[in-house]
Amino acid sequence: MSNNGSAVGQLLWSRPLCVGWRRDQEGAVYHLATCLLLLGFMGGSGVYGCFYLFGFLGTGYLCCVLWGWFDACGLDIVLWSVLLATACVLQLAHLVYRLREDTLPEEFELLYKTLCLPLQVPLPAYKEIVRCCEEQVFTLATEQTYAVEGETPIDRLSLLLSGRVRVSQDGQFLHYIFPYQFMDSPEWESLHPSAEGVFQVTLTAETECSYISWPRKSLHLLLAKERYISRLFSALLGYDISEKLYALNDKLFAKFRLCFDIRLPSLYHVLGPAAPDAGPESQKDDKDVREPAASPSPQALPTSVQQTPPSSPPPASTSPPAPPPWVRMSRPDSSVLASRTPLQSYSQVMSRGRAPLAPTLTPEL
């Protein structure tokens, strides 16, 4: 142990001491390199902290190269400074590559901040979703159709990014689709993953629109593999479908002043298209319908439509009159239906032989 200590002491103290200090000082390049190295070692953490650190260190070592080449005239100083400056430049290039790889396109970045960030969706999971749609953004011109009723197959799921889309059936307007809403969520939920089908509505762009689309098979594979993404899509699609049902209910309330439960299946029979021959004949149909619908049973009406009928004395005849024949009549114009009372409108719909707006007998669960 003493021999090792004496060897270290000989290495430290056997060197000749400085006889005299140099009177001329180093040039400005040397002092600049020292200042840059000092600033570089004061860098913080994180990506931008690493940019600060290696940026100043690389510049400082480059100044050391110039100082060793012009002033110190030392080959070892030049070689070591070149090596350290090269390491800093390579590290900066790696950081730039990582930032470029993690950066999303502008549309997907805005989609993440609007739809996924409030739900605290992790960025890696969102990147898996974006990778499934291949980071492609599609466009629709004004009055261009996204899907045609009875023709377009259901082979994808799309999300509207900008613009407005009109949904119609048999030429009758149903509702709008606004940005950051799914364009075909009911069709997606209505089919089994292995089943095939076509659209039952027509989707037309009212303005210039942009949207992203996931292929059906690729998205089903992703949902089967990633349980978190599957639950996320289930929540988003459920919320989107409920918004569409509420939009239909609002249209029904604005048209007939009737507000039904959104879980009822047959709102379209009230919102459906009017017959082309709804002229004076519709008024005759209205008179024929008012008789059997004058005293409807309260149990056969939905809760929101039940009204107290006006009290009137019973007829004096002992035998009730024979009901009129039950015939299927043409549907009157929508303006005629809107001008009637809710009770008359509901009776007219029931007399057409269509599905009721509410089940008369609800099975007990």
Automatic annotation (TrEMBL):
Designated name of the protein: Popeye domain-containing protein 2 isoform X3
InterPro entries membership: cNMP-bd_dom_sf, POPDC1-3, POPDC1-3_dom, RmlC-like_jellyroll
Gene responsible for this protein: POPDC2
Polar residues bias locations: 296-307, 332-350
Compositionally biased tracts (Basic and acidic residues): 282-291
GO molecular function: cAMP binding
Region of interest called Disordered, as start-end residue ranges on this chain: 275-365
Species this chain originates from: Neophocaena asiaeorientalis asiaeorientalis
One Pfam short name: POPDC1-3
Gene Ontology terms: biological process: heart development; regulation of membrane potential; skeletal muscle tissue development; striated muscle cell differentiation
Membrane topology of the entry: Multi-pass membrane protein
Regions of compositional bias (Pro residues) in chain numbering: 310-326
